Amino acid sequence: MPRKLMAANWKMFKTWEEACQTARELVVAVRKDLPDDREVLLCPPFTALRGVSEMLSRQEGFYLGGQNFYPAEQGAFTGEINPDQLLDAGCTYALVGHSERRHVIGEKNGFLASKVAFGLKKGLKVILCIGETLEERKQGEVQSVLHRQLEQGLQHISSATSPEDLAVAYEPVWAIGTGETAGPPEIEHAHNLVRDKLKSILNQAEQIRILYGGSVKPDNTASIISLDNVDGVLVGGSSLSAEKFSQIVLA
Ligand code: 13P
């Protein structure tokens, strides 16, 4: 069984100092009790990566991730960051295709597919984020949306991709930052769809971790994490506080 991945996405919150402080508090609150079957991932803003990396260094089970990157070695891409720069800052993981990148910045499946393939090639562990909007759910399109995002997002990778290098985060757009969580049946249904689709794309799909994200909180984590095919969580708002996120990590 792969270890459960308890991931924090700090989005565009926290200065360098605030991020380091939260990471420090989290390590103190969690490190003695972190079960062997869980790992913790922090995705701070780029400006805080190096500082948070220092807070996590030599801490067993804690990893650093970037929230995004551009799929090129280097070059004239003002405002972007490349996988080598993330690795250099101490990252092991990177998110690709977060809902806010898709719906606020306008990134499309084809572009995200280049990122997934390039990030893996450069040695990052990639977490591809997928999820339907409320409108798509109302139209009965959950399955077709998830299938399309997986088929297209993973179109350039080898079917032999190591399951340790790739994860999928199911984050229904309507549950992000709204306080609305998908209920256990909705989460299980979506995660089963994702698992089945992954089996048609990858050799070792059983081992790929599928995280749930969308208004995860200390009091709903235990019930979410115990569902079939839920191998971790990706947490926004409730991960900004070390106290709350430590309860989530240990729930
Ligand atoms: P919230 O936990 O704030 O709903 O955000 C979820 C998310 O977008 C994590 O990537």
Q: What fraction of residues sit in β-strands?
A: 15-25%
Widest β-sheet, arrangement of strands: 1-2-3-4-5-6-7-8
**Counting H and I runs of at least 4 residues, what is the number of helices?**
10
Question: What's the number of domains?
Answer: 1
- Sum up the overall morphology in one term: globular
Give structural notes.
The protein is an alpha/beta fold. It has a single domain, classed as Alpha-Beta Barrel (TIM Barrel). Helices cover 41% and strands 16% of the residues. The radius of gyration is 17 Å and the shape is globular. It starts with a strand and ends with a helix. The site of 1,3-dihydroxyacetonephosphate (13P) has 14 residues, from strand 8.
Q: Can you give keywords for this protein?
A:
globular, 8 strands, alpha/beta, 251 residues, 10 helices, TIM Barrel, single chain, eight-stranded parallel barrel, binds 1,3-dihydroxyacetonephosphate
Short structural summary:
This protein is an alpha/beta fold. It is 41% helix and 16% strand.
Helix/strand layout:
Elements lengths: L3 E6 L6 H15 L7 E6 L5 H8 L5 E5 L16 H6 L4 E4 L2 H7 L3 H14 L2 E6 L3 H5 L3 H12 L12 E5 L13 H18 L7 E5 L4 H8 L6 E4 L6 H9 L1
Parallel strand pairs: 1-2, 1-8, 2-3, 3-4, 4-5, 5-6, 6-7, 7-8
Helix pairs in contact: 1-2, 1-10, 5-7, 7-8, 9-10
1,3-dihydroxyacetonephosphate binds next to strand 8.
